[in-house]
Specification:
By secondary structure, the protein is of the alpha/beta class. It has 2 domains: 221 residues, 3-Layer(aba) Sandwich (Rossmann fold); 69 residues, Alpha-Beta Plaits. It is 35% helix and 30% strand. The chain is built from 11 helices and 14 strands. A 6-stranded mixed beta sheet has the order 6-7-8-3-9-10. Strands 2-1-4-5 form a 4-stranded antiparallel beta sheet. Strands 12-13-11-14 form a 4-stranded antiparallel beta sheet, with helices on both faces. β7, α6 and β8 form a beta-alpha-beta unit. The longest helix has 18 residues. It is globular.
Length: 313
């Protein structure tokens, strides 16, 4: 059953077309990835999904209800984990959860049981009475997610939930997200600047760039979009813009990226002899090669090939 459908969603700010006629749907129980470089239109799309921003055209249907015509019903089964922490620092974890749970209409024994459940799944029962302002960044993130899940929404939007946190908290959040499908049947929309998280969690995904959907489907379907390309990672001691221009001029090269001594070249895989052309350019421009590795396409490769940018750009 389809729980979310975007129909011809478009949004402009003045003369800037931020979201351009987007269409996609999500089935119940999916963990769905929403990817794109900065400025691609992700945040605006999420704001329209939540009813915070009204589209100039189109509609968002959540569990059969229009976010425009019936916002109260549409939002009833929606939970949102924002990028920024939506907690009151001067209150304890228990009081924050009680506050948000009450807003969701919970009360009495049900509210208490949901608070106990939230503290259990976040692993923070022993810090339940501590003020949020005394929590670490990772602990705040975990309570932030728990607050959004207090009412057990059918659809949970998680907007970069692991930004700036420690590895232990990140693993805890990833494991919790996995359990949402298995234990609660929750549908999740997940955005992240960490491609490995998306590869671990998401059944399907779309890639946005400049307000448009440029790719969508299962991970395998998206990877097959560039099945005729391969990713070559080359560690260099020196790199110049001239090298980049010469590599881009090769007919077999479809994209390059250089960061912190690592040159990534996306090239057609039809002829392995093309690698020699790349090596010749590097050698003739005094770029000493420390290591060269040819990798099969992954989501990071696909993203770079389709957008020409890193996910974190």
């Amino acid at each position: 059953m389809t729980i979310l459908e975007l129909k011809n969603i478009t949004k402009r700010y003045d003369d800037n077309l931020v979201v351009d006629n987007i269409n996609f749907s999500i089935k119940e129980g999916e963990t769905f990835g929403l990817l794109g470089p900065n400025g691609a239109g992700k945040s605006t799309t999420i704001s329209m999904l939540c009813g915070l921003v009204k589209p100039d055209q189109g509609d968002v249907i959540i569990d059969g209800h229009s976010i425009i015509k019936n916002p109260t019903l549409a939002k009833k089964n929606l939970g949102v984990v924002p990028q920024d922490i939506a907690l009151y620092g001067s209150l304890s974890a228990i009081d924050n959860l009680k506050f948000w749970g009450t807003l969701y209409g919970l009360s009495g024994s049900l509210l208490k049981s949901r608070i106990d459940e939230a503290l259990e799944i976040t692993g923070l029962k022993d810090r339940a009475k501590d003020k949020i302002k005394n929590y670490s960044g990772g602990m705040k993130r975990r309570i932030n997610i728990a607050a959004a899940f207090m009412h057990h929404p059918k659809l949970l939007i998680m907007d970069e939930p692991t930004v700036g946190i420690d590895p232990q908290s990140r693993n805890h959040i990833l494991e919790f997200t996995k359990s949402l499908n298995e234990k609660y049947g929750t549908t999740v929309i997940y955005t992240s600047h960490y491609m490995e998280e998306v590869e671990t969690l998401c059944n399907r995904l779309i890639i946005l760039d400049e307000g448009k959907i440029i790719a969508g489907g299962t991970q395998d379907e998206i990877k097959r979009m560039i099945s005729n390309e391969e990713n070559i990672d080359i560690n260099l001691t020196q790199y110049t813009n001239e090298i980049g221009l010469k590599l881009k001029a090769l007919k077999t090269v479809s994209g390059i990226n250089y960061k912190d001594g690592l040159l990534t070249v996306i090239m057609k895989a039809s002829d392995k002899s093309n690698i020699q052309d790349i090596i010749d350019i590097l050698i003739h421009n005094d770029a000493k090669i420390q290591n060269l590795n040819i990798k099969v396409p992954n989501l990071e490769t696909v993203f770079l090939s389709l957008t020409g940018k890193n996910l974190r750009d």
